[in-house]
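User: I'm writing a short report section on ligand binding and want a predicted complex to refer to. Could you take this sequence and (2S)-2-hydroxybutanedioic acid and write out the structure as tokens? A short remark afterwards would be nice.
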Amino acid sequence: LAAATAASLAFAGAAHAADDCSDGEIVIKFSHVVAATGHPKGDAATMLAERVNSEMDGKACMQVFPNSQLFDDDKVMEALLLGDVQLAAPSLSKFEAYTLKFRLFDLPFLFQDLNAVERFTTGTDGKDLLGSMTDYGFLGLGYWSSGLKQFSANKPLIQPADANGLKFRVQTSDVAVAMIEALGANAQKLAFKEVYGALQTGVVDGQENSWSNIYTQKFFEVQDGITETNHQLLAYLLVTSDEWLNSLDDDVKTQFLTIVEEVTAKANAAVAEKEAANRQRILEAGSTIRELSAEDRKAWVDTMKPVWTKFESDIGADLIESAVASNT
Ligand code: LMR
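Assistant: Sure. The structure tokens for the complex follow:
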């Protein structure tokens, strides 16, 4: 009896901890790797859950698992297919196993700002790319922007040559590897949750990420400073399993997709402000941010942009042209 009581108490505890989904509600689990708050993706996930949980109460219930607590980005895609989670939002750099088209978004110095990103992702070509992984059972529901990326290292980076011989952590992206190698540096692919430790122990010398990731993961604490290169986009694909989505009743699916669309637009409109706030917090924490002169920036562009040609055939010249055109 004692054992049975303990087991049922443990079960009740687990059910409670797993949020307040009630019987009959469709459970939508969303796993991501960043901070739960103060980050474009963390905040967008929360906003989505709040809307689903209030507007679809009785029909659906969303639970968000931030900070890699449930899955890493390399495991979450499999988890979507197995039905262990229903939503994920890995960065566009992390889909190389399923499509090479997203290499587009990693091309250094492709988008001049987040407005250009918004124009491209809401245009025809951007929308078409949402369906580029249906052969694998994945469907993109939208793009969530997160900002442009900045370099940091354990020494000042002003000229590209300053990166020579250093080792940088990169995401699982061959474009990022090529870009780092163009600097005469070495790239090491590491999971996001391992980056702070790798910087702290000197496994890598530097990294590249958005202001929000550099601040919320405290990378600035274990780096000499951050160089404002704005060299590459960090954005996510809000992704689900085709099979799961199509298992929903039409009215449920329509309501859910409408909420997703509205949250996506609202979240993307708030990114630039969140990024600026996190940049400011890094300064206030006493870290150094190095701005580049026009001449120095040109040197970074001239060094890294030639990698485009290496990936042109994977992506398609037309698609690259279309993204470039979104800058004007
Ligand atoms: C990274 O691995 O650096 C990013 O993709 C993490 C994230 O989700 O912002």
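A remark for your report: DSSP finds 15 helices and eleven strands in the chain. The longest helix spans residues 250-269.
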